[in-house]
């Protein structure tokens, strides 16, 4: 038996040792790409390098990522801002990003939290999971959060190169980047990317499949969200809830949308949080500002960001967020 174990070690140890530098090089090349995983790597890079030192953090899903321009906030409010919206994820993964962010970077003064119907809903899977590949090795926090999803095993987090098995397209991207002298422009700036798109048929296709659907709220996620808000209060972080514009026909597509909004109102009241709800805003009936029922295009996002700024200034006595003259 001892001889068998020694034989295995003799065979696998050189493989493991060799895989460490290969893993390092491959992961670094993926981090360097300006368009990997919809640009999520650019945000993760800034987080893990400890490069964030902004006063306003913007949280949420893709509706945060494409709806709120941090540069416009900076220009008008006189406070630095960064958009941490993570595409296709509910609060569970949003909180993972928050945990990593707070571990490696200073705490903000404000968090603008972009809520949507899926924020506290049950998740069916891990969307865009390749974004975690360059950061997974020996990362206990990522393992703790992501191990409940299907796709990666325990050994993917602790054995070099194993998680890249079957990820041929990802490896190909890294290899092409390593031999190319050309670099593309970053797809996000401070986490934000305005979408130069026009209205598509996503909603029409969805309605053909199902007339309306209902979001199932995850009670454990609601509890975690409340704990997150408690932690923010302890750390003197002012949280502001925002429900950004949503095309009117898309609002009608979710059967229990009003119940979800009511839940957010109750949570806001419980934690004494300002809730800016744009469900009835005039933007919602103007298709020219959207590229689908849930997402504003670049023109709509810029219009909305300026509208949000006016409301933040209007409610300044409650939030204290507007203090341009002091900076």
Tags for this model:
327 residues; alpha/beta; Rossmann fold; five-stranded parallel β-sheet; globular
Q: Quick gist of this model?
A:
By secondary structure, the chain is an alpha/beta fold. It has one domain (21-326): SGNH hydrolase (Rossmann fold, 3-Layer(aba) Sandwich), CATH 3.40.50.1110. 47% of the residues lie in helices and 7% in strands.
Which helices and strands occur, and which strands form pairs?
Elements: H1 2-32, H2 40-48, E1 56-59, H3 62-65, H4 70-77, E2 81-83, H5 91-104, E3 110-114, H6 140-146, H7 154-158, H8 168-179, H9 202-209, H10 219-234, E4 238-243, H11 248-253, H12 257-270, E5 274-277, H13 298-314, H14 316-319
Parallel strand pairs: 1-2, 1-3, 3-4, 4-5
Helix pairs in contact: 1-8, 4-13, 5-6
Structure in words:
The protein is of the alpha/beta class and 327 residues long. It has a single domain (21-326), classed as SGNH hydrolase (Rossmann fold). 47% of the residues lie in helices and 7% in strands. It is built from 14 helices and five strands. A five-stranded parallel beta sheet has the order 2-1-3-4-5. Helix 1 (2-32) packs across helix 8, helix 4 (70-77) runs parallel beside helix 13 (298-314) and helix 5 (91-104) runs antiparallel to helix 6. It is globular and about 60 Å long. The model has no long low-confidence stretch (mean pLDDT 91).
């Amino acid at each position: 038996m001892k001889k068998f174990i020694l034989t295995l070690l003799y065979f696998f140890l050189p493989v493991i040792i060799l895989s460490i530098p290969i893993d390092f090089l491959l992961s670094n090349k993926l981090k360097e790409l300006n368009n990997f995983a919809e640009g999520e790597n650019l945000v993760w890079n800034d987080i893990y390098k400890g490069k964030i030192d902004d006063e306003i953090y913007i949280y949420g899903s893709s509706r945060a990522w494409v709806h709120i321009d941090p540069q416009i906030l900076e220009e008008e409010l006189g406070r630095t801002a960064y958009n941490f919206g993570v595409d296709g994820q509910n609060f569970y993964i949003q909180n993972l990003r928050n945990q990593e962010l707070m571990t490696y970077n200073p705490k903000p003064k404000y968090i603008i939290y972009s809520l949507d119907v899926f924020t506290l809903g049950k998740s069916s899977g891990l969307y865009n999971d390749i974004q975690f590949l360059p950061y997974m090795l020996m990362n206990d926090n990522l393992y703790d959060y992501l191990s409940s999803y299907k796709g990666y095993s325990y050994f993917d987090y602790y054995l070099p190169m194993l998680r890249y098995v079957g990820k041929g397209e990802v490896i190909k991207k890294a290899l092409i980047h390593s031999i190319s002298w050309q670099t593309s422009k970053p797809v996000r700036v401070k986490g934000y990317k305005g979408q130069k798109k026009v209205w598509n048929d996503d909603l029409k296709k969805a309605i053909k499949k199902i007339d309306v659907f209902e979001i199932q709220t995850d009670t454990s996620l609601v509890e975690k969200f409340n704990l997150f808000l408690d932690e923010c209060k302890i750390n003197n972080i002012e949280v502001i809830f925002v429900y950004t514009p949503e095309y009117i026909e898309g609002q009608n597509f979710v059967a229990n949308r009003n119940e979800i909004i009511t839940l957010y109102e109750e949570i806001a009241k419980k934690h004494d949080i300002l809730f800016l709800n744009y469900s009835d805003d005039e933007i919602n009936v103007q298709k020219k500002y959207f590229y689908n029922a849930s997402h504003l295009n670049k023109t709509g996002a810029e219009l909305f960001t300026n509208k949000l700024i006016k409301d933040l200034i209007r409610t300044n006595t409650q939030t204290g967020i507007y203090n341009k003259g002091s900076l």
